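Thread amino acids onto this structure.
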């Protein structure tokens, strides 16, 4: 652990911080990360998403009903709080929907199974309006099996919702959101190269 960067969680030799330039989106993001993801996934995309987004927060837990910070944000009249989650009832966000409030987006970060538990246990999140985007996208994350075609990594989900909100004149038009996907693609490519170089039949002692 001491050989890892405490910011991006990569090893100090492969630290990615220099490649991460924080983006001002004009939107408040709160990434709710499952404890297993926070502790075991050293290069989890939830943490990387947090580093990319200015004015974002990362909160660890399962049942957020009792989270003082989450409830404080939900009750804050300055925010229009939503949950990014695939749903047929997802709200179509426009400027007049916000009524001069700042858009706040909660994102659940974990395996699909863990995310469903987090949502089931968190009554306060269940009461929020859901938002989503076109489900035609397919995840580029080859190293985590997705249970459904529309399931994406956290960094991909953040990117696509920002593209959607940019078209609706809510997200910052001048921000370079493409940097997130360029960074993510490099990670996937590097991981692919690493696994290709490993002899699957070799024995390690």
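Threaded sequence (205 positions):
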């Amino acid at each position: 652990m001491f050989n890892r960067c405490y910011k991006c969680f990569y090893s100090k030799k492969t630290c990615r911080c220099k490649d991460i330039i924080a983006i001002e989106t004009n939107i408040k993001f709160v990434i709710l990360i499952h404890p297993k993801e926070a502790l075991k996934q050293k290069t989890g995309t939830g943490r990387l998403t947090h580093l990319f987004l200015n004015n974002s927060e990362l909160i660890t837990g399962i049942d957020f009903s009792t989270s003082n910070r989450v409830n404080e944000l939900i009750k804050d009249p300055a925010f229009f709080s939503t949950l990014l989650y695939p749903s047929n009832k997802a709200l179509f966000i426009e400027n007049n929907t916000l009524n001069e409030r700042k858009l706040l987006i909660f994102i659940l970060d974990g395996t699909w199974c863990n995310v469903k538990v987090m949502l089931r246990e968190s009554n306060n999140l269940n009461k929020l309006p859901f938002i989503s985007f076109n489900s035609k996208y397919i995840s580029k994350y080859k190293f985590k099996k997705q249970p459904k075609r529309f399931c994406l990594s956290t960094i991909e989900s953040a990117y696509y919702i920002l593209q959607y909100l940019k078209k609706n004149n809510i997200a910052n038009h001048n921000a370079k959101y493409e940097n997130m996907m360029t960074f993510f693609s490099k990670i996937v490519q590097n991981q692919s190269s690493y696994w290709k170089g490993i002899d699957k039949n070799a024995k390690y002692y």
